[in-house]
Amino acid sequence: MSFVRSALALALVAGLAGASMPEPQAPRSGHRPAAQLPVRAAAHTADSPEPGAAVPPVEDWEPPLSTRGRYVVDAKGERFKLRSGNWHGASGTWTGSGSPDDPANNHAGEKSDRMPLGLDRAPMPEIVAGFRELGLNSVRLPFSNEMIHDERPVADASVAANPALKGKTPLQVYDAAVEALTDAGLAVILNNHTNTTRWCCGVDGNERWNSGQSTEKWESDWLFMTRRYRDNPRVAGADLYNEVRRSVLDDPNWGLGDRHDWFAASQRLGDRILQESNENLLVIVEGINWTGLPVDGLPHGRPTLEPVQRLSHTLVRSGKLVYSAHFYGYTGPNHSGATGIGETSDPRYRDLGRGELHDVLRRQAFYVASQQDQHFTAPVWISEFGVGGRDGTGAKERAWFENFVDFLVETDADFAYWPLVGWHEDRKGNGWALLQWDSAGRRIGVFDGDDWRAGAWSRLVGTPGRTGEVPPVDRWSMLSPDHGDFVQSLRMRKLPDWDEGARKSACPDGQRLAGLSHSGNRGLCTDAGARGLSAPDGAHEVVRDERHVEPGHDWAPGHTKFQCPPGQFLTGYSARGAAVSAALCTEARERLGGGGRAVWFDRSDSRPPGAGGGDFAYGHHKGQCADDEYAAGIAWTGRGGSSGAPDALLCRNLR
């Protein structure tokens, strides 16, 4: 038995060491005016700027960023497509054995010294200008928790091309990178890539946000970082953790409520960031990267964003959630990416034909952005993808990249290439980076005439997709008090506990309760048909009896009815076990309709045809008011062995 367990652990280590990283030669994974910076280039083609030319003008955008349905928009409501790349290094390149000061012990021989890569070889303004030349408008900037607290000054040699950074700590260098990027007009997405400053992503102590550190420390570090850049409006997002995956013994999960629950951890931290440190940031949640042991015959796979369809996030500030996913050709929906020990017979993404690949991508991630008016609808940012360039890439890998880029163009997807910066000597080295510098500071890039990726990259960044204003959309939000309170109203969070000892749910401010499930305690909120329905600073009431049921209007005979008073509508509820405990009612800013109808769902799915929101309580009976109605009451019974779960809603016309 111990032999079997050891063999499985070895397979896991080997498998996950390849699951989230490219194959050996590849690395992966006050508003200021934009500067016009010169470009250094080694060779150019007709498709690239002339030597010494100014980089393209940065697009005009006004922070902060938010979301409208599947699109990211700026403060003017105009589409801001995240055309991004990863400037890695601050999260570490050390492989975990030997001296981290020896390049041989750093991935692909590229030693970052706990800083964004390349600062020993090129001035920071030149690197940033290169990003602009590539057609980017945003940069994902990884960091580690260890880097934040590292007080050791960086070595002089590590910033040889940036002497102003001598004597700085890694965090101070990170500060300088943030400033240089945002001064150039680029949006910055902060990314907590690892706990320790080392190369990602195997069974390395960085599998989860709380591997080797507490969840409390993880949250505290994030609040520190988001407060640190709060006054820089072009710091636009917080990418909460990179490639959550299995450790030797444990899988992450999506909604079980334990210390490995990535859904609950990201939900809580996202709310804390928006409530306590920086309300303007996008909160970016990546799907689960890997579960199970990569051994044929045992369950294993890459869940990615598939669980979102049944359990989605609802943040305390609507319009701030972005989901993300990673795709590399050498991995697969059930393939870890390993070769040798830990390799399974499952196909890799590069083994799939064009049509099959696109179907898998839709299933694993892109459905989130392609289905409108669902509780899970949000932008999907492919925050890592990449491929080798000049050397050593086979026909399958090239075909995969072309097909993948075609799919990004076809779906008008937001993206971030991995990586932007790498090293070369005599045009040889790590070919995955789009820009590479040698030890003498000479740069080569994807547009220098000998990189087969140039056409696909030009097509990707040159196809604008949707532009201009994105009209406001209806918002649909899931309430999931599965393991505790799920109060998403900032207003109610500031008030005393309105039903002590019960699990409480409340819609985000500006939304109303539209649906409930008979069991499971799930709810659905929306602002469809009546945005801003709540009265400013209006009253609310917690209803625990039938005092507001009008005489002669028993809309649920034989049942207990928690009904809102006239002029108020349902925005929340509480439960003890399965039983309804109270209804939360909020004053409307306008006159509401009366009368109404009972929607029963104790034995059926009673959602109106064509109603928005989708299946907000998978596997449970549920009921929902129509889009032009509001919920004004909840009916339930404890008789006949009933659990006291919701049985019916009182739905009334909005006007």
Descriptive account of the structure:
This protein folds into two domains: 66-462, TIM Barrel (Alpha-Beta Barrel), CATH 3.20.20; 476-653, no CATH class. It has ten helices and 30 strands. The protein is α/β, with parallel strands linked by helices and 655 residues long. The longest helix has 18 residues, at 2-19. Helix 2 (124-133) links the parallel strand 3 and strand 4. 55% of the residues are buried. It starts with a helix and ends with a strand. It has an eight-stranded parallel beta barrel, surrounded by four helices. The protein is elongated, with a radius of gyration of 26 Å. Helix 5 (215-228) packs parallel to helix 6 and helix 8 (395-410) runs parallel beside helix 9.
What tags apply to this protein structure?
655 residues; TIM Barrel; 2 domains; 8-stranded parallel barrel; disordered N terminus
SSE blueprint and pairings:
Elements: H1 2-19, E1 66-68, E2 71-73, E3 83-86, H2 124-133, E4 138-144, H3 145-149, H4 170-183, E5 187-194, H5 215-228, E6 235-239, H6 262-277, E7 282-286, E8 291-292, E9 300-301, E10 321-326, H7 354-370, E11 380-384, H8 395-410, E12 414-417, E13 421-425, E14 428-429, E15 435-437, E16 443-445, H9 454-462, E17 476-479, E18 486-487, H10 490-493, E19 503-506, E20 512-517, E21 523-526, E22 540-543, E23 560-563, E24 568-576, E25 579-587, E26 597-600, E27 605-606, E28 622-624, E29 629-636, E30 646-653
Helix pairs in contact: 5-6, 8-9
